[in-house]
Each structure stands twice: as C-alpha cells, then as structure tokens.
Amino acid sequence: MTETRETAMVCKAWPFEEARRLLKRYAKNPPEKGYVLFETGYGPSGLPHIGTFGEVARTTMVRRAFEEISDIPTKMVCFSDDLDGMRKVPSNVPNSASLEEHLQRPLTSVPDPFGEYESFGHHNNAMLRRFLDTFGFEYEFISAAEFYGSGKFDEVLLRAVEKYDEVMAVMLKSLREERRQTYSIFLPIHPETGRVLYVPMKSVNKADGTITFDDEEGREWTLPVTGGNVKLQWKPDFGARWAALGVDFEMYGKDHSTNTPIYDSICRILGQKAPEHFTYELFLDENGQKISKTSGNGVSIDKWLTYASSESLSYFMYQKPKTAKRMHFDVIPKAMDEYHQQLRAYHGQELKAQLNNPVWHIHGGDVPESKMVVPYSMLLNLASVSGAEEKDQLWGFIQRYAPEASAATHPDLDQAAGFAVRYFNDFVKPTKVFRAPTDLEREALEDLRGRLAAWDGGLDADALQSEVFACGRERFDPMRAWFTALYEVLLGASQGPRFGGFIALYGVNETVALIDRALAGELL
User: Fold this and answer.
1) 20 to 30 Å CA-CA from 10: which of 143, 335, 433, 468?
2) Does residue 167 share a domain with residue 43?
3) Mapping DSSP to helix (H, G, I), strand (E, B) and coil, where does residue 36 land?
4) Residue 409 lies in a domain
5) Is residue 51 very low, low, confident or very high in pLDDT (cuts 50, 70, 90)?
6) Are 132 and 71 contained in the same domain?
7) Is 256 in the same domain as 126?
8) Domain-terminating residue out of 257, 283, 309
9) Comparing C-alpha atoms, which of 348, 360, 278 is closest to residue 311?
10) Is the residue at 294 inside a domain?
11) Is there a single domain that holds both residue 269 and residue 165?
12) Measured between alpha carbons, how far is 296 from 314 in angstroms, rounded to an integer?
C-alpha cells in the first residue's frame, strides 16, 4: 500500500470518510458489474441551478477519494427524470403562457419555450450537460425518457408488476388515507393526449405485464408497463432506478432524507442491495429561502462564473456540506480568496494536510500553483477607488505593485481582475455610501496623509501597515474603529482590505490624493 493510500485511509476529510464507508460494501467480493457506480439525479422541471452542480461536484469528490483508496473501477451517471409530467409552468422562461396547454405532459413532449431544442426537457438537459462539461466532470448522461422507451428499464418494471403488492405496501404506509384510495406506483402515459395520468389501477396483471385503468373521461385502457408506456411515481422510481442500474452511492438534499427508508426498501424488493447515501443540507437564498429551479432564486451557475472562477465554486461546495449555506452574491469574493489561500498553502504542506486540503478534492490531487499575487477582495477595492470599467485599468496598478506579473504569466490573476471589475460595477458600486469623518477621524486621516506625503519606503505593504497602525493606535480603542473609518470614509464600504497592502497596490501618492478628496468632502 502506498503512503498516499495509507494516509487517505485515516484522513478525516469528509470525501474520504464517505469513500471508506463505500469500500466496506465490497470488503468480501468486488462488484459483479465490474465497477462501483455513483449516481446523481436531476429533475429538469426548470433551468439547472447551482444545487445541481453542487451534487455532481461533491459526488465527484467522493469518487476521487474512493479511487485513491481502492483499485475497483468507478463510473458516474447523471440521470435526468425528463419523463416526469410538467406540473407547473416555470416563471423564469420566455413565452411561459404558451406552456399552459402542455401541463402534465412529459417534459420531453413539452415544446421548448426558448425555441432551440426539440423539447423543454431536451433544452434543460442540454443546459445541465453544458454546465457540467464546463467543470470537466466525467459522467455518463442518462435520459429517463430514453431509459424507459428503449427497454432498458423493462426488466425492473416487470419485476415491479410481479412485486406490486409488496412495493405498494411500502408506499401506502407513508400516505394519508385519502391518497391511499387512488394511489398506484405506475403512472400511465395516455396513448392519445400524451399526458402523465395520476389514476388508480383497476388491475395489475402479472401474467402479461400490463395495467388496466380508466382515464379522466372514464374510458378503460390496458397498457404494457414496458416500452415507455408508463413511468413510476417519483419515490418508487428512485428505488427502481437504483435496482436497474446497480447504484452504489448517491447523495441528495435533506428534503429527501425522510424518504430514504422507502427508496431502500423498494430497491431491495426489486432485487438489489440499496446504495450508500449521503444527505447534504440545502442551499438558501439571501432571504433564507430554499433555492428553487422553478422560481430561479439564488445564484445560478452562469452568474457565479460571471464573477468568479469555477474552482472557487467547487471550493464553496466542498465546505461543510452538512451545514445549510446562504447562496447569494456576497459569498463569492470570500470563496475566491479562501480558495487561493488554500492553493498557496498546499504545496508546502505534509501529505496528511494536503489530503485534508479542499484543493486536493477540487483538483483530484493534481493541484496547480496560485498566481494570485493580489487577493480578489483587494482587486475589488482597487476597482472601487480607480472607477475601473475594464480590467486593463487595474493592470497598471498591479504591475507597479508586482512588476513580474502579466496577463500571460498570471492568467488566474488576469481572469480575477476581469471578474472583480464586473462584480464591482454590478454589486458594489450601486451600494457604495461614503460618509464624512468625525473630528477624531479627520485628525487621524490628516496624520496618515502627512506620513504618506513624506514616505520614501517604497511599496512595502508591511511597513505601510505599520504607519496606518501608528495613526490609529493612540486615538482609537478598539483599533477596529479606525479601520472601519478608513473603509467608510475612503472606500464607501463597511469593510475592506488590509490597508497597508491596499496603499502598496493603489500607490502612495494616489492614496494621499484619495485622502485629500475625502477630507474636502468630494467623495460624498
């Protein structure tokens, strides 16, 4: 056993803990199918949101950890339940009124409101795949419509007919009395209207694998459960899909957690061992509400990538998956800076610390070096005081501070400069509020201005920070009040950067001019 594998077997990082639990599943014999299967599920009732990405990113992290501690091959599938009937029209799509007449039809039979694909389901599947491909995930995509229609699900569907009473017994325990009277695990797709029907079964025939039911107009129909004529209700579908594919690991949000015994029981009834699970906490928007595909609240994947790198998003997903996280735009700068802090630390760490470092799990052990010589938060402040509209305006300051840096040699810094300008103009600039200094703050600012005007120590951030401290040490208790004053009076913000580093980046003379403008009331 290699040193890395030995260390990984005791590593406390959550992906390794999940991987070790999964490895115990095959402690005696390897999987008959020849690989361990990871699955992620997706309901394409609306545009993919960031929680979907998080599920795939986190599952990939567990998969990578498993591959580090085991030689058993792995595979990951992303399963789209695109045969599901459209229960309501999403509010965040164009031409939404035109979709009303298609309610309850499978998403792959609903016209694409964007006019780009053969159906709304195909459109949302394409969006999902494009998003996932952006991050380089390795996965096989499976469409429920294709899975049911091609016959790949037929064996398990026929087994569900055979075990109908057992599966129904599991489901009926979880339902209210009123719902029990009409419930069936099978949802027929009407041969004429194409709608997914929620109707009781008159009979389920084990001999020929058919179901008989009356449609909404009272007409009787008999359909085979195979070949895409029916779909399973979503809870039985979960367990049946695990059985059909031989799923070994799936994670999902805590809103599914109460259903886990149901999924597991149905999977076992249909002849397969239930997979290992991992339940994560939900993502919340700025108002503390659960992020929803149909309402489109929270931060979308595209929006995050407008203002920050894909790696920073993966970093955000890695952190504390069992804790509910607020997913709004103000988390982006912090995620960017913390990701690069971990990246810088990684190459000087011992193996144990490296395996516990989030960047190992983000990059699968092939961890690059950070070229971010200026933090993202500092770039935001630089954009603020310089009024930058383009990233090139920031490079003049950056290259004076770090002459060795350029867009060619520091591509992550160049990319971050572009992100920072966009983020500043869209989120920071509209909310900037400057205030006048108090008498004590004015006295301290005049002291700092004088020190900087006489400064001949170059762009030494630590030395400049000492000067900033000296101006506030005798005047403010706590010192935090002095830095708050600097941010609110000079930057129009309630918090900001390490001020000595900011002066070194922005320039000593430029900071003197900024203080002059603030003291003259020109920033108000």
Assistant:
1) 335
2) yes
3) strand
4) yes
5) confident
6) yes
7) yes
8) 283
9) 360
10) no
11) yes
12) 20
Residues 398, 276 share a domain? no
Whether residues 450 and 408 fall in one domain? no
Taking the model in full, what pTM does it have?
0.89
Question: Pairing state of beta strands 201-205 and 36-42?
Answer: unpaired
Non-local CB neighbours of 107 within 8 Å, separated by 6+ positions: 44, 45, 82, 83, 84, 85, 86, 119, 120, 121, 124
Task: With CA atoms as reference, report the closest residue to 54 among 317, 363, 319, 251.
Answer: 317
Q: Give the three-class secondary structure for 141.
A: strand
Q: What is the DSSP code string of 20-31?
A: HHHHHTTSSS--
How big is the CA angle at 167 (ends 193 and 176), to the nearest 5 degrees? 75
CB of 212 closer than 8 Å to CB of 221: yes
**Prior bond to 411 cis, omega within 30?**
no
- Residue 417 is part of which domain span? 376-431
Q: What are the structure tokens assigned to 24, written together? A: 């115990």
User: Is 105 inside any structural domain?
Assistant: yes
Closest CA to 125 of 412, 114, 136, 390: 114
Angle CA(414)–CA(416)–CA(417) in degrees, nearest 5? Answer: 65
Same domain, 406 and 457: no
Give which of 184, 158, 180 is closest to 271, Cα–Cα: 158
Bridge partners (DSSP) listed for residue 189 = 196
Q: Is the pLDDT of residue 464 over 70?
A: yes
Q: Could you tell me the two tokens for 330?
A: 């103000």
Domains contained in the chain, number: 3
Is residue 345 in some structural domain?
no
- Residues 380, 487, single domain; the answer is no
Q: HEC profile for 194-249? A: CCECCCCEEEEECCCCEEEEECCCCCEEEEECCCCCEEECHHHHHHHHHHHHCCCE
Domain CATH for 475:
1.10.10
Question: Using an 8 Å Cβ cutoff, are 40 and 250 in contact?
Answer: yes
Q: Measured between alpha carbons, how far is 74 from 35 in angstroms, rounded to an integer? A: 5
Tell me which of 389, 410, 431 is where a domain ends: 431
* Helix 332-346 with 411-423: angle, nearest 10 deg: 160
Token pair 């057992």 in the structure block, residue:
166
Instruction: Tell me what the pLDDT averaged over the chain comes to.
Output: 92
Interval 228-261: pLDDT, tens? 999 999 999 999 999 999 999 999 988 888 999 9
| Cα 230–Cα 218–Cα 235 angle in degrees, nearest 5 | 30
Q: Using the 8-state DSSP alphabet, how is residue 427 labeled?
A: I
Positive or negative: CA dihedral 114, 119, 121, 125: negative
State the CB neighbour count (10 A cutoff) for residue 181. 9
**CA distances for 245 relative to 238, 249, 275, 402, angstroms:** 11, 11, 11, 54
Task: Decide: 167 and 175 in contact? Cβ < 8 Å.
Answer: no
